[in-house]
Design brief:
It is a single chain. The protein is α/β, with parallel strands linked by helices and about 350 residues long. It has a single domain, classed as Rossmann fold (3-Layer(aba) Sandwich), CATH 3.40.50. The strands form six sheets. The protein has a seven-stranded parallel sheet with strand order 4-3-2-5-6-7-15, with helices on both faces. The structure holds nicotinamide-adenine-dinucleotide. Nicotinamide-adenine-dinucleotide (NAD) binds next to helix 1, helix 5 and strand 6.
Length: about 350
């Protein structure tokens, strides 16, 4: 059973907005809520072109003008404990959604410090703030990377995930453990969401579909890892946002155990398409959609601009979500296929870069 959380008239904090998923979530909240305030908080770091974050923020600010919901943007880091404490004290969010994190598996190999700072210290600050300024629900981003090299598919939240193959994955699994302890000790309703390879318009330029597009446009060669023998459960951003929005409104119920202490109001879900695509099929669809959107000419020689290379450290050969628990508890599972999703990306790319 879930405790219903009405978002209307309340303050919702979304960290990592205007990041990719955060900005899309905030745009949806501005559309769906009838009253209240949405607070976006982001340090606007330059892991990828910050102009994209400014662009997404401008979309949010435009949407806020015609929404009945207020929007406040705070530039700052979740690793700044005094700031996070002040934000919770001043805005008293009823629901906090922590999406701020240093993302990316490969970057964690050369830049471990920032993962510890943002993903561990930053998340700890969010938990402490929720402890001292109680929220109705804390929802936070975990990742499919916690499944590491697990062989059993589809990946279920009941599977053992104690063998991360990247520091990024280790920080995300740590978030789930930290959240569990805070849920148990302080009765904070917490839900972790393991997102599976999220893509879409104005997405992250460090992710394959986006960086490959940029390279092809420049006439450069794209590297296809593990010689193309990869399967990914690609999830279109609108499906992720729908899942997050539903989860936000249903918190794990508070209950007391036989020992008189709280049973942790805690849950973790996968949000993934549930239909893993072969990387080479995904690339073919991307190519077709880039031509269709006139990002690339119809006679583009794709074969000349690709090379098959080995596996990268930290990478895994397959991701495959079992999202049945999400469907059972929230009546939703992702449905948007790669054709529709990549078409929307290609159309956006054409418009944005011309
Ligand atoms: N996109 C995916 O495929 C995917 C998959 C699994 C999990 N996730 C997780 O979902 C969340 C959102 O990812 P995204 O794809 O939107 O990435 P993103 O990089 O676009 O968004 C994250 C945002 O967090 C901000 N940020 C980073 N460190 C911060 C800090 N210390 N303080 C404040 N802001 C900070 C960044 O500036 C960025 O705007 C992340 O937690 C990520 O790990 C994403």
């Amino acid at each position: 059973m879930k405790q219903r959380v009405d978002l209307n008239g309340k303050t919702i904090l979304v960290t990592g907005s205007p990041g990719f998923i955060g900005a899309n979530l905030v745009l949806r909240l501005l559309k769906e809520m009838t009253s209240g305030t949405v607070v976006s908080l982001d340090n606007m770091n330059d892991y990828y072109d910050p102009k994209l974050k400014e662009y997404r923020l401008s979309l949010i600010e435009d949407a806020a003008k015609t929404s009945g919901v207020g929007h406040v943007f705070i530039k700052g880091s979740i690793a700044d404990q005094a700031l996070i404490d002040r934000v919770f004290d001043e805005y008293k969010p009823a629901v906090a959604v922590n999406l701020a994190a240093q993302a990316g598996v490969r970057y964690s190999i050369d830049h471990p410090d920032v993962y510890i700072e943002s993903n561990l210290i930053g998340f700890y600050n969010i938990l402490e703030a929720c402890r001292h300024h109680p929220v109705e629900h804390l929802v936070y981003a975990s990742s499919s990377s916690v499944y590491g090299g697990n062989k059993k598919v589809p990946f279920s939240t009941d599977d053992k995930v104690d063998n991360p193959v990247s520091l990024y994955a280790a920080t995300k699994k740590s978030n789930e453990l930290l959240a569990h302890s805070y849920a148990k000790l302080y009765d904070i309703p917490c839900t972790g969401l393991r997102f599976f390879t999220v893509y879409g318009p104005a997405g992250r330029p460090d992710m394959f579909y986006f960086s490959a597009t940029q390279k092809l446009v420049k006439g450069e060669t794209i590297s296809i890892f593990n010689y193309g023998n990869c399967k990914r459960d690609f999830t279109y951003v609108d499906d992720i946002v729908e899942g997050v929005l539903r989860v936000m409104q249903g918190a794990p119920e508070k209950k007391t155990g036989e020992d008189g202490l709280p049973l942790p109001p805690y849950a973790v879900y996968n949000i993934g398409g549930g239909t893993p695509e072969n990387l080479l099929d995904y690339i073919s669809t991307l190519q077709e959609e880039l031509v269709r959107a006139k990002v690339l000419p119809p006679d583009y020689d794709f074969e000349k601009h690709r090379k098959l290379v080995g596996m990268q450290p930290g990478d895994v050969p397959v991701t495959y979500a079992d999202s049945r628990a999400l469907e059972e508890d929230y009546g939703f599972r992702p449905t948007i296929g790669i054709r529709e999703g990549l078409r929307a990306f290609a159309a956006w790319y054409k418009e944005y870069y011309s």
